[in-house]
Amino acid sequence: MLAMGAGLAPMVSSADGQLGIELNKLEQRGGSCIAYLVFDNATGLAFDALQLELILFDTDGLILRRLTLDAAPIRRDKLSVKLFEVTAMPCGSLGRILVNDLVRCTVAEAPRERCLDKITPSSRMAVELIK
User: Fold this and answer.
1) CA-to-CA distance for 121 and 128, rounded, in angstroms?
2) Cα angle vertex 37, ends 35, 40, to 5°?
3) How confident is the model at residue 109 (pLDDT cuts 50, 70, 90)?
4) Which CATH class is domain 14-130?
5) Residues forming beta bridges with residue 32, ordered by sequence position
6) pLDDT band for position 16 (50/70/90)?
7) Distance from C-alpha of 33 to C-alpha of 108, rounded to nearest angstrom
8) Out of 29-43, 77-91, 109-123, which region has the weakest mean confidence (pLDDT)?
9) Dist CA 91 CA 17 (whole Å)
10) For 28-63, what is each residue's pLDDT tens digit?
11) What highest taxon heads this organism's lineage (predicted)?
């Protein structure tokens, strides 16, 4: 697990064979919080389906909500950015985000086991991204 704050988190290198997911930016838009996630796919695989179960915690460690994020497609050996909106929530109330599980993970149109093991979360924010 890699979860570093305050701009110290490096992206995963291609030699790692991992899918790096970095919380790169939080942006307040009205009453909603927009999270920017950077996916660094160094697995050598293209993900046709990748649906993350995320648990959002407040700054006191209490669960705020559960949501799923459909991040696919994730191309092989490609850096990409995905945004997700958390409605009716100020960004300042977020303490950390847990990648709790994968709802779906499909590579080459076939379900793949142990996808969660390939994920390396990190954060450039004070809000941690962990698994």
Assistant:
1) 9
2) 175
3) confident
4) mainly beta
5) 29
6) low
7) 33
8) 109-123
9) 32
10) 999 999 999 999 999 999 999 999 999 999 999 999
11) Bacteria
Measured between alpha carbons, how far is 119 from 1 in angstroms, rounded to an integer?
9
| Gyration radius of the chain's alpha carbons | 14
How far apart CA 64 and CA 93 sit, in angstroms, is 9
Tell me the one-letter amino acid at 90. P
pLDDT, mean over the chain = 89
Supply the pTM of this predicted model: 0.85
> At 123, which amino acid appears?
S
- Percent helix, strand, coil in the chain, to 5, is 10, 55, 35
Half-sphere exposure at residue 8, Cβ-oriented, CA atoms within 13 angstroms: 8
Instruction: Report whether 41 contacts 78 (CB < 8 A).
Output: yes
**The tokens of 116 are what?**
């969660």
In this structure, the chain runs to a length of: 131
User: What is the C-alpha separation between 65 and 55, in angstroms, rounded?
Assistant: 6
